Description:
Blueprint (H helix, E strand, L loop, with lengths): L1 E3 L5 E3 H51 L14 E9 L5 H8 L6 H11 L1 E9 L1 H10 L3 H13 L2 E7 L5 H15 L1 E9 L3 E2 L1 H9 L7 E7 L29 E10 H10 L9 H8 L6 E4 L10 H7 L6 E2 L10 H12 L5 H4 L3
Parallel strand pairs: 3-4, 3-6, 4-5, 8-10
Antiparallel strand pairs: 1-2, 6-9, 7-11, 8-9
Amino acid sequence: xxxxxxxxxxxxxxxxxxxxxxxxxxxxxxxxxxxxxxxxxxxxxxxxxxxxxxxxxxxxxxxxxxxxxxxxxxxxxxxxxxxxxxxxxxxxxxxxxxxxxxxxxxxxxxxxxxxxxxxxxxxxxxxxxxxxxxxxxxxxxxxxxxxxxxxxxxxxxxxxxxxxxxxxxxxxxxxxxxxxxxxxxxxxxxxxxxxxxxxxxxxxxxxxxxxxxxxxxxxxxxxxxxxxxxxxxxxxxxxxxxxxxxxxxxxxxxxxxxxxxxxxxxxxxxxxxxxxxxxxxxxxxxxxxxxxxxxxxxxxxxxxxxxxxxxxxxxxxxxxxxxxxxxxxxxxxxxxxxxxxxxxxxxxxxxxxxxx
Length: 356
């Protein structure tokens, strides 16, 4: 069947339909191309945002005067482990007690980095007040105190993070992402500032697993999911874990744990989509669910304070870390950590004699 156009020419209906289909297909192809182009752009933008975040964290370390900026100058340097000591603005006395016991200072710390490939830093972000007033006052009182402390000791790693107890999961993500961007290490360790650590024993423990991929080391536990409001370690998202009374999946207790470089890099790349639970150690364990991760349960990473760690040391089984479960750290650590160090420490020469 045909019809006439205005010029009197015969035009078949099939030709008109064909032209319509051609126009439709062209439009569909354009929309499809636009859709996939947008998805590609979204991925590129996301990657650029992650790179920018890492660069920003490195820049802040440089601007704060921290020696961590040296790591950005030698991208070919390989390290054995990075130990990040989680701390808070109110914990100056705790930091000084750690400096006076198990954390090498001054030239010894620099020697630890150059000869043993071990980085040790206190890890802290910024105060909310400091961020709000930064343009007018160059930071709040708390931030200025940390900057002055770092100028004196050079052992503080600043994070692009706002401090707060309910923000520990976010701080953990930022720590690993920043540490990976600054130092190319085999292992990344997180420890609290009220825990005693034997660095050589920690290094020897990690070295036993260095040929294994995706290693997650700590004192593994599976405690109850606490749904009751107001109790310590309350889990607001308890409903995600099934029936009341259920337990969490296996994860390392938060006082001290270590992960291999591939897992730290995984956190860095995916930090924007990793879910944060109320408890930091639960969050870390959740990020590895679905991955082929080796969970290594080593009870030497959670010894008790004397007499427990002392008896073990006398038996030749020196502890990696010691603390009191009742306090989730050493009770009254500022007063007691020297005693723990004296009775359970591996000795000042241990780290220099150790081979990793």
